[in-house]
Amino acid sequence: MCTLQKRNNLFILTLTGSDQHRLNPTLIATIRSLLSEVKSQSTPGTALITVAEGNFFSNGFDLAWASSQSNGSPSEAVNLLRHMVKLFKPLVADLISLPMPTIAAVTGHAAAAGLLLAMSHDYVMMRRDRGVLYMSEVDLGMTLPDYFTVVMREKVARAEVRRDVLLRGVKVKADEAVVKGLVDSAYDSAEMTVAGAVKLGEELVKRKWDGEVYGEIRKALYPEMCNVLGLTAKSVVKARL
After folding, report:
1. Strand, coil or helix: 108
2. Are 87 and 76 in contact (CB under 8 A)?
3. Using CA atoms, how far apart are residues 27 and 115, in angstroms rounded to an integer?
4. 3-state SS class at 186
5. Are 222 and 154 in contact (CB under 8 A)?
6. What distance in Å separates the CA atoms of residue 119 and residue 114, rounded to the nearest whole number?
7. Strand partners, 50
């Protein structure tokens, strides 16, 4: 389901297997547990890379799980979906407050909550030979949770891009995603995407930034997002004055 490895100063969180990496309570709890482990081992000059095996980075919430646990009740399936939305919110908060740089290596499709998972990282790298970014809610017939909208508003600078992603449900491939400012760079294969993420991570950890300072600057950069996620930025001074 998930693994965590440390390669020198890089933490590599991998969504394992060839499935769609649908976010259900078990997977959400596992990712949060690994992020807690990363946080506890943080030192100046560490970074996190999140990657997934197979054709999907993540295809969003596990609607099949909600249906299977609902005893055939559509209203109960909706309640279970809302439960996953509630569980996922603190995972996003974990990433936004993590005391180190974070990089998502999107090596397959990232849809709905899976796209939000990627966008919750500081940097997003994407493979161009397979995969799209897709916010599917408008096509599925459901509104967006408040924190989804706020993350997209603060992370995506151009209003017309937000409109097309959220209100048209466009499926964006890697090169177009770079132009639109949704991702930072595009690569020809999954292996090259991960290699690009590792190269960037290695460059960042050389700076040996203090993790607490880094995390607080990130939180201050996204005030509306932090307000919705229940995070509070604070002033930290560790410089030798």
Report:
1. coil
2. no
3. 16
4. strand
5. yes
6. 9
7. 13, 104
Print pLDDT tens along the chain (241 aa): 899 999 999 999 999 999 999 999 999 999 999 999 999 999 999 999 999 999 999 999 999 999 999 999 999 999 999 999 999 999 999 999 999 999 999 999 999 999 999 999 999 999 999 899 999 999 999 999 999 999 999 999 999 999 999 999 999 999 999 999 999 999 999 999 999 999 999 999 999 999 999 999 999 999 999 999 999 988 988 876 6
Whole-number Cα distances in Å, 104 to 99, 125, 196: 16, 6, 11
CA dist 61 and 79 (Å) reads 13
From CA 183, how far away is CA 227, in angstroms rounded? 24
**Distance between CA atoms of residues 181 and 147, nearest Å:** 20
How far apart CA 55 and CA 130 sit, in angstroms, is 8
Q: Which residue type sits at 29?
A: A
pTM of the shown model? 0.96
* Tokens encoding 230: 């229940």
